[in-house]
Design brief:
Elements lengths: L1 E5 L2 H11 L4 E3 L7 E9 L2 E8 L2 E5 L1 H4 L6 E9 L2 E5 L2 E5 L4 E5 L4 E5 L4 E9 L7 H10 L9 H11 L7 H18 L11 H15 L7 H7 L4 H9 L5 H19 L5 H7 L5 H12 L3 H10 L2
Antiparallel strand pairs: 1-3, 2-5, 3-4, 4-11, 5-10, 6-9, 6-11, 7-8, 7-10
Length: 307
């Protein structure tokens, strides 16, 4: 990852144009600061976390006409608000909004409100495997319906924000393209929103566990059915990474339990077990001891004695 910072209009224009495509920046705050965290995973896919105190950017018709790729921006508004204008339309964005626009066509970004932050996936639209007419329709709408509230959006941007450590960049790019394609398709009600790659399915299942870890009665048949795959396929994609879906679910439940033990000292171990999704206190204690080398009660006592 490359981290670049700027405190002037010229400096920020250079940063943005170098990481994305050439843009004309304007509307800077008097004490402007900008930070770009940029990672390129292959020639056709990159991720950037953009943080500024407020500015605007214009991809003019002249600049767009020089484009050498068919890249699109899938942009998640993480803080503040703004307006995206492209293709003759405009969309207001707020935290959780997701917009889609092409870099080989003119667009204007009004992010002049303070404390801006966007997470942007830049990817070739022809590499997504989605029908061209569908992507064109998505760009005409600009906004992805319901944004962060939808599972495919959360899957894509949670993966983009924190790709697996040590994974081959080419595999990361393949997974991210898969998740981006699912997001576009699902916004039109196409399919069940199921990734086709092993990496994409592992991430989708992991996100499902993070959302539903405390729900009692989850078993792997239920998880496979929810993701429209066979139980065999579910286990296969995790075995490819030296993991198992059951161990991942257990780890998520243990994370919930650790938080409850630490934050609410008056709660009983039994109530923590059930509220973390474990079916009984014996199973919880056994899993906790394997993970930490001590019982939940001793773990909490140790944290309290250490202040």
């Amino acid at each position: 990852m490359v981290v670049l910072e700027a405190e002037s209009a010229d400096g920020w224009e250079t940063v943005v144009s170098g990481c994305f495509v050439p843009l004309r920046c304007a509307g800077f705050e008097p004490q402007f600061t900008g930070r770009m965290e940029h990672a390129a995973f292959d020639d056709g896919l990159s991720v950037s976390l953009v943080t500024t105190c407020g500015t605007s950017a214009d991809r003019t018709e002249r600049l767009a006409g020089r484009a050498e790729s068919d890249d699109i921006h899938l942009s998640l508004q993480r803080s503040s608000r703004g307006i995206v204008t492209a293709g003759g339309g405009a969309a207001s964005v707020r935290p959780g909004s997701v917009t889609i626009y092409a870099t080989d066509r003119p667009y204007y970004l009004d992010y002049s409100w303070p404390r801006q932050q966007q997470l942007i996936v830049q990817v070739s639209r022809s590499s997504l495997g989605a029908p061209a007419s569908m992507i064109e329709d998505a760009m005409r709408r600009l906004n992805v319906p319901d944004g962060w509230r939808t599972t495919p959006v959360r899957n894509l941007f949670s993966y983009a924000a924190a790709p697996p450590d040590g994974e081959d960049p080419r595999d990361v790019a393949e997974t991210m393209r898969d998740l981006a394609s699912v997001m576009v398709r699902s916004s039109f009600g196409e399919g069940g929103g199921v990734p086709r790659t092993s990496g994409g399915l592992r991430h989708a299942v992991g996100e499902y566990f993070r959302q539903h870890a405390t729900q009692p009665g989850i078993d792997m048949d239920h998880v496979a059915l929810h993701h429209f795959v066979s139980r065999r396929r579910l286990y296969q994609v995790f075995e490819e990474a030296g993991q198992s879906p059951a161990s991942l679910l257990r780890a998520e439940r243990l994370r919930v339990a650790e938080r409850l033990l630490a934050e609410i000292p008056e709660r009983t171990v039994e109530s923590v077990a059930y509220d973390s999704g474990f079916r009984d206190v014996t199973t919880f204690t056994r899993a906790f001891r394997r993970a930490h080398g001590c019982t939940p009660r001793d773990w909490r006592a140790g944290r309290m004695s250490n202040g």
